[in-house]
Structure of glycine dehydrogenase (aminomethyl-transferring):
Amino acid sequence: MSMNAQGRPTRAVPSAAAAAPTHTGHRALQLEVALLFDEGDFEGTGVDLPEPAGTASRLGDLAADEAPTLPGLAEPEAMRHYVRLSQKNYAIDMGIFPLGSCTMKHNPRLNEKVARMPGFADIHPLQPQSTVQGALELIAQLAGWLKELTGMPAVAMSPKAGAHGELCGMMAIKAALIARGEAETRTRVLVPESAHGTNPATAVQCGFTVDKLPASTDGRVDIAAFREKLGDDVAGIMVTNPNTCGLFERDIREMADLVHEAGGYFYCDGANFNAIAGKVRPGDLGIDAMHINLHKTFSTPHGGGGPGSGPTVLSEALAPYAPLPFVVEEEGRFRLVEDASEAEDAFGRMTAFHGQMGMFVRALTYMLSHGGDGIARAAEDAVLNANYVLARLSAEMSPAFDGHCMHEALFSDAFLKGTGVGTIDFAKAMIDEGFHPMTMYFPLVVPGAMLIEPTESESKRSLDEFCDSLLALAKDAKSGEAEKFKSAPRLAPRRRLDETQAARRPVLRWQPEAAAAMAAE
């Protein structure tokens, strides 16, 4: 397929509905949506306002020479456009969202309701601290529970997302090395080849050199290779646990002891804390720093456009270097420590203010409504659901590794060999079945990877519907129905893009059709 002059994919034809085309392009309640630029009138606007009298522009020579090329739309037209677009989005409120490594679970509406209470939603970070005592107390209480769940003595609340939390942890490690006088000699950070891409990027951002750790045949860090790479120049290790293959690193305590003996620190990527919260305390495993995605583990809207929150827990060795600001309680009152004179070892600030308040409210609401036993049960259910999916799909698909998994099930494309169907084709066919595809081609250590994370919020019935569909698709692929997969999706509002052409000749801005045609020539 190819892209049209405006850079959009071609329409969903031919399809099952092509046998009975409509005059409008609509298919019942599946309404065709053109670009606003195609719908609007460039000669007029949706609102007729008179020119203001007696005013002069204060922009001087910075004023634009001409009006922007924007379509004029009436309010109902603009509203209908975006409502129709919203109806084409897949969402967790519609069905299972099996993206591995993402934890796309249901967000309890209670959390949303509390986050929108005026005392939380309407406050401003520049208000006098005396007027936001409740908010500061909430941050302190949430910090306390994060420390309790992780077994760590300190937590930095200000990081705004997972990668930001990683940066916080690695900056604390850097600050500790500077304090020891070893920042110039300890420059190497060990990172498993199955790590999230942000891990090596964060290490490099902090001035370290990344040394890749290979995986063993069982999908975990090769402990023998790890031992060989230790040396006086090692600043630390960055490990995700459970890892991105959906497996628990059985040797994590040994790795922590070894890196500490070598004089380095242990950073743990906490993106998958959802699988062990209430069951395992990272502090007991020898972890020095670990970020926690509040927008995954504690049900805030990951993947819904943000914003995120990535508090970072720190060990006793790194606690003095935690960034400003942080909340302290004095004689029943709360305040933010923001002056470096009160925390001389702090490595600085990461954000202008104190963190993401909306995420803090949602996370604490989740914790208090679940309780310790409920959080542990959520982790158990996440692991149970993933192993149920693994067991059911193993009949037709190819598990990447033997044995049980943690919170996500990983498959390779081995079951598609010789069928003419690729991983991406399988994903596109899932769209026609009404499912968002799982994470494809990640982690890179598995050929044609298909990573499925059902999360704890899915019922057995929804898991069975999902598994039945994938099993049927696998059988179709093996039965020689390759064309069905190559032409998918057939029922979506848009067909498959020519991805090679889109990458080589992207159309990044709208142009009138005549101008676009000339540019293409």
Notes: Confidence is low (pLDDT under 50) at residues 1-10, 12-19.
